[in-house]
Structures are given as structure tokens and as C-alpha cells.
Amino acid sequence: MVKILLAWLTSSWLLILISVSPAKASADYCDITRTDPSTEYTWPLSAQQQSPAFMHKGDNQYLLTCELEHSAVFTFQRSGVESYAWFQDGIEQAPLPAGEIAYALPRGQVQAQIYIRSHVDYTPKFRWYPTSDYIALSQRHSLLMGIFYGLGLALVLLSIVIGWRMKGHAIKPYGFYIACLTLFFLHQEGQLYLFFGTAAVPLLNTTYLLTVGLTVFSATWFLSIFLHLKRDFARLNRALMLLAASVLGAAVARAFADPFVFELLWQIVGIFMGYATLVIILALFVLACIQAYRKVPEAGLVCIALSVIFVSMFFRIVLLNYSPFMQRYGFVLAFAIEAFLLAIALSRRVNRIAIARDQAEKDANIDPLCNIANRRGVSHALSRFASKANSDTCHYAAFYIDVDKFKVVNDTFGHATGDAALKRIAATVQGRMRAEDIVGRVGGDEFIAIACFQQVSDVELKYRELQQALANVSISTPRGLYPLSATVGCARFAQLPGTLDQLLAASDNAMYREKTRNNSVAAV
Fold first, then answer.
1. What's the CA gap between 356 and 456, in Å, rounded?
2. Is this model's pTM higher than 0.70 or not?
3. pLDDT at residue 180 above 80?
């Protein structure tokens, strides 16, 4: 029992010692030393932490020293880099296939010489990661960017399809903007470097600057159209478009100018591009809010989208080192949200325009007084009718209706009573025809009904039904009920005529023969 108690006390004491003793620090460490002839300075590097090490314009040399228990990956940004090289034990090593510049670090003691030629003075954000952490971060980043690129591609294809069918309405400018934006992020995030070697770096740097200018210009162009700025703010719209064109021109100049020859100009142009873009976004944001206040459709969504972009641009240009997350993903997320909100706004406008167009088409085919098809509507309905009907088993019939002594009704009771008479006749005819039949007004007091019947006898029955119905119609007048009558002519066809005029001529002739006979025998 005493032995057990002593063993328990001993083990408990050891546990306490272990729990209160400090954990052993990781043996992994790295530091980077600037080894230029004029400057030598060393910065310690903690895992996954950004180094404050700076880089001057021109040639830069660094010495990386690491002591690692596990393999790792060393990375730095591509932006501003014209060329680079990495040597270990005097042998140049190839970079890993990644969006940013990355090199593998083996376990143990590592020394590497890094040579970088830069366009500008900037902080390259040297970092190192344990290999497992780097793989996890890379997969997360690839998933996020894959979603963004998929969204961009889908929106571009959608705008092409819709823009092909619907002219105008800012659809094509939107597609052009999203295409430029997607290409911009393909360059910025380095995915294109996965397919091209280091020899393509100068070319990709040039095309990257071009995509910057094109993205700013295309966004301004699209929003100018979408927010009706040319109509409502003509002078300000011209100023914004001129400023956007200046950013595009500056991007072209920066893309093709040698930064080592035109050093001051290159820096001034870069500063101008950043702040001019910020001014454009701010101006468009204010104008979008004004248009939203004025009840311009979908301007509110544009205002929200631009507010997100403005915040991300402020972090990117002004608060450079405030938030690493905003620097890494804020810009991408902001533009993804903006593209999605603009897509919603554009789809709403397209839907509203489509509804208005359908309504206009419907109004153009409907007689406003009688609420049945007009001559144009009958012509369109006849074309659809001919394509659906089976001519082998169908007997076509056209019933032409003419209101008797309609001029007397107008002259005696006035045009209001005449309009009521026409509506009464139209309702009577429509009430006797089927939903699939065509009923329309083709003249002042003339109507047409077109139908397909399985039997010839069905044509005769329908003809007599219409005659009887139109013989017992009356309307209310100031003098009491007034009886109306209408003459019905019927023309039957084995095949529908090629045009509406031919069909109307045949049925109109039948109606006049019936009117001449002045009896109830069908003129077929």
C-alpha cells in the first residue's frame, strides 16, 4: 500500500513538473539578410509571418539562412519583380509551380542566395511555411480563386448569350468588364505563371498592366451606360470617361516604358493610376447613390457594389499594411461581390425590359376597344395556327362578321353607344368560339373568326350557332334596348391560304353573298 502511495505521489509530482515547465521551443527558424555591397541588414523570419524586409528598385541580393526540423516552402510576391534567381550550394534551383514565387526548403541547415531585379521600391513580403501548411493554404487559395474564375466565366458567357438576343441595355459592356476583371486577377494572383516559364515574366508583366487599365476603363464605360450618366450628368460623365481613358493610356505607357530609363515618369504614372482609379470609384459611387435617390431602377444595387469596391481600394492604395487578410483576399472578395450584385442588377433590368417588350408586343397585337386581336394580331396568330394544325384531318373555316347598319347606331346614339355595340358583338363571337380558335377585329365594324374542325358538318353547326347568336344581340341606349344584328359569311378551306389577305378576301366575299341573299343559308 505504501509503495502504491509513493508511486502515485511520484507520478503526480512528475505530472506537475511537466505541466508547469515551459514547452520546448521549436527548433525551426529562418532569417534573411540583405547582402548588397552598400547595405547589410538581417531580419528574422517567423513561420507564416510577413517579413518587413525591403527591396530597392534595381538589383537586390539576399542570403536566406534556415535551421528546419521539417521541410518548408519560402515565398515572396511577384508584383514589381522583373527577374529572379535562387542558388543553393552554388546550383540554381527551379521555383515551385505556384501563383506566387515559391521555393522548396529541405529539412536541416539551409543557405540560399536570392537575386531579384525589381521595377520599383517595395516590400516583397518574404514568408516561409511548413510544407503541410503551405499545401493547405495553397489548396484553400486555389479553391477560392477557382470559384471566382468560374463566376467570372459564367457571367461573361451569360452576357454573350443574352447580349446576342437583346441589343443594348449595357449587357455587352458588362461582359467586357467582367472579362477584363477576370484576366486582371489571373495575372495578379499568378495563375498564368503555372503555364509559362520565367522567360514569359516580362510579357506577363506587360499584359498585367494592360488589364489594369482595361478593367478601369470598361467598368467606367459599363456603369456610365447602366446609370444613365450621359443623359443625367453629361459633363461629369465626359470627365469620368476622359479620366478612365487617361488611366488606360497611363497603363499602356507604363507597360511599354522601361522603368530603369524613365524612372521618375514610371513612378508618377503608377501613383496617378492608383489615385485616379480611387477618384473614379468614389465619383461613380456618389452618382449611383444620387441615381438611387432619384428612383433610377437598380441604382441602389450599384451603390452597394461600389461601396464594397471603394473600401477594398482604400485598403489597397492607402492602408497598405493595415490588414494582411484585406491585402490578400479583400480585393478578390470585393470584386466577386460587386460582379454578383451587378449581375443581379443587370438581370433585373433585362427582365423588366423583356416584360415591357412583351407587353408592347401584346399591345401591338390587341384591339384596345374590343380586347381581341387586331389585324396584325390575327396575322401572327394565323401563322402559329397553321404550324400547329394537322392539315390532313383539319377542315378550316373562316367566319367573317359584319355589323348591320352600324352607321345608323353611331348617328342615332353617338360614338359611345357605337363602341358599346362593337364590344358586345366581339364578346358574343368570342363566347361562341373555342380557346384555340382565332377571333379578331379586322375593320371598323368587321370581325373574323378562324377555326379548324374535324368534320365538315361541324363547320355548318358552328356557322348556324354564330348566326343565331348574332341575331339576338341588343345594347342599352338612352331610349332603351336597341336590337343589333350582324351578317356572317363562311369560307371553308382544305388548306389555309398563304396570306391573311387571301383568307379575308374569300370570307368577305362569302359574307357579301350572304348579305345579298338576306337569308340564313350559308354561302360556302
1. 42
2. no
3. yes
